[in-house]
Amino acid sequence: xxxxxxxxxxxxxxxxxxxxxxxxxxxxxxxxxxxxxxxxxxxxxxxxxxxxxxxxxxxxxxxxxxxxxxxxxxxxxxxxxxxxxxxxxxxxxxxxxxxxxxxxxxxxxxxxxxxxxxxxxxxxxxxxxxxxxxxxxxxxxxxxxxxxxxxxxxxxxxxxxxxxxxxxxxxxxxxxxxxxxxxxxxxxxxxxxxxxxxxxxxxxxxxxxxxxxxxxxxxxxxxxxxxxxxxxxxxxxxxxxxxxxxxxxxxxxxxxxxxxxxxxxxxxxxxxxxxxxxxxxxxxxxxxxxxxxxxxxxxxxxxxxxxxxxxxxxxxxxxxxxxxxxxxxxxxxxxxxxxxxxxxxxxxxxxxxxxxxxxxxxxxxxxxxxxxxxxxxxxxxxxxxxxxxxxxx
Length: 393
Fold this sequence. Notes:
Elements: H1 2-31, E1 42-44, E2 54-56, H2 74-80, E3 85-87, H3 94-100, H4 105-112, H5 121-125, E4 134-138, H6 148-161, E5 165-170, H7 177-185, E6 189-193, H8 209-224, E7 226-229, E8 233-235, E9 247-253, E10 256-264, H9 269-276, H10 290-302, E11 308-310, H11 322-326, E12 337-339, H12 363-373
Helix pairs in contact: 3-4, 6-7, 8-9
């Protein structure tokens, strides 16, 4: 009887191993239908590069991501790919910028040491950083309004990430009073003229405009490396500790990774997996967050060694917790960044300028004041006369 029980037990173990292996392979095949070929032999070429629809990057990306370092020059690589790079910034002095914001003389002196154009020598000299210190935004379509929140995003990047360059990829240069103010106050902004493709690599038309951006941002990081941010992300502190990993994303909820903040080295294997999904894009049947959020989390579970996941410091509070962002105070001091998910907040309640945040006792109010003045402390309402929004002047 004991021998029979032992035989049954061993049989059950063998069957379990077989089923796990089979189902795991089946699951991978559904996520990555082209698997079996050289992993990601073809990716969709950057639109507007003038080099055709597809590029064979097998040899170019054959080395492990660990061998790709910060020495790769993103600016030069974008130029070599034939893009039109247009400098945007017309920076004023740090003193003039802070005076315009209504900061006190003490705040001006304190913040001169934190001038947007300066780089940390520790960051530059470190040999352990893989992700290049450049920031990418994607801005497509002519009907988008560049807002106060977008302005704060760029200002937070300049203050806390201090990137070598900020690249704005898209078919239109942002416009409006807040864009004009941004390029006066943040250094090294370049517009990268790119004509987005309306179809996925398999020829299916993208169902949502957001899917165009989803593909573009991943493709940009795969080809050049760096940091991608949605334009409603406010940076809280330096990303330097995260730049040691080949790929980084944040958890926004159980079973969901958010691609609104991503870091990656050029050629990162996890980014290649993300783009591989788009060969199975389903057109009108594609779900809003299927590939960018849900499948991304599944891939991270399948290949945990290819990505570092931040559980709370990038995308919490999440899209389902907007009250914590705009009505309450949340302890953001452990965050690298805060994603505002502004599209989910009623338009009539969105802050439109500094006068809306000077005395706001909310998480957003604290962050906005910290970005603009160097301190999250509540400001005097009298400052509103000197820092009125450009579109309210």
